[in-house]
């Protein structure tokens, strides 16, 4: 009797050579994100990052997130579902960094480093490289280093061509400079900072409206959007690192609180930085909502209350500042490339 044929890991669905090839590409992508605090290259068992000097009581700040169903367009949560449909994979990495880093920024922290987790049923090196290219770009925008991550090839766990993506950001802030909303007081100004579109939340509802209720495909061009459906949905989430750095430099202690407007919209996120017993009165007519939200509301139709608690509606970040510092804050935000106004 002939001896049984040897079975390999590749035949079981895991390609070690593909994984090694992707790691080499990741090393090249991560190198330009390196900061002076980074002490080791990507590829070791652990990433090393020193705390920056000049801090008396440094506090580490962490944030973790995914990208929802955006991935079928490109690859982040339900946003991931959009990525799979369009084959565009080089923007959802920016979303991933944004969702983690923007949370870290809200307490006044400076982002230090980022780690990612990429899981798929069968590793496509080119797709993996495109995703990490976006992550590296997001890290550049945030001023933090991509110091490591994990790539998992899990046969049978994901449909062909699909993957999952998660990230982890760490920042640092001086203990005395932590923003926690406790100093927010009656009479403070609430400043909205523009989003780039849906960012990374509300994609299940957005896809339901666009694909099922309106009968649109990702490749269909919508004149009101000025783009295809897929392009509009894949617009990367804004990373507010430069903006918040400029705001804090210009206004200092006059900045009382920062809120990242994600799932739950303004009603679900602004109260998270308000002390108990204090509310906020907003003028939602103080700005024009981006076209994508108008298309979605009409196309559903979607009731106003549902729009407000699902989408950011054009406001990606809120800064609460002393009333007398409002103009200075808006000027600083504008100088960093952001559109801002009093809500």
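^ structure tokens above, recovered residues below v
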């Amino acid at each position: 009797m002939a001896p049984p044929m040897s079975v390999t890991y590749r035949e079981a669905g895991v390609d070690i050579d593909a994984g090694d090839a992707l790691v080499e590409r990741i090393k090249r992508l991560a190198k330009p994100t390196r900061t002076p605090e980074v002490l080791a290259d990507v590829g070791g068992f652990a990433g090393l990052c020193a705390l920056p000097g000049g801090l008396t009581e440094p506090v580490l700040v962490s944030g973790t997130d995914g990208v929802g169903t955006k991935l079928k367009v490109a690859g982040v949560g339900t946003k991931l579902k959009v990525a799979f449909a369009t084959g565009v994979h080089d923007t959802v990495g920016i979303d991933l960094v944004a969702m983690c880093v923007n949370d870290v920024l809200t307490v006044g922290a400076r982002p230090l480093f980022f780690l990612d987790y990429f899981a798929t049923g069968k590793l496509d090196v080119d797709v993996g490289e495109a995703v990490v290219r976006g992550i590296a770009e997001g890290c550049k925008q945030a001023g933090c280093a991509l110091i490591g991550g994990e790539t998992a090839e899990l046969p049978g766990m994901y449909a062909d061509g699909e993957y999952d993506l998660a990230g982890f950001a760490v920042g640092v802030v001086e203990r005395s400079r932590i923003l926690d909303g406790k100093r927010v007081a009656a009479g403070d100004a609430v400043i909205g900072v523009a989003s780039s579109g849906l960012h990374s939340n509300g994609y299940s509802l957005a896809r339901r409206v666009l694909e099922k209720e309106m009968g649109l495909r990702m490749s269909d061009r919508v004149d009101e959007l000025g783009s295809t459906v897929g392009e509009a949905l894949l617009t990367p989430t804004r990373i507010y690192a430069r903006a918040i750095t400029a705001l804090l430099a210009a206004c200092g202690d006059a900045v009382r609180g920062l809120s990242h407007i994600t799932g739950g919209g303004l009603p679900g996120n602004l109260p998270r930085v308000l002390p108990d017993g204090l509310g906020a009165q907003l003028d939602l007519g103080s700005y024009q909502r981006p076209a994508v939200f108008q298309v979605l509301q009409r196309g559903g139709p979607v009731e106003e209350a549902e729009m407000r608690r699902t989408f950011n509606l054009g406001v990606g970040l809120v800064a609460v500042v002393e009333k007398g510092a409002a103009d200075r804050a808006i000027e600083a935000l504008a100088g960093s490339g952001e559109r801002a106004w009093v809500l």
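The radius of gyration is 21 Å.
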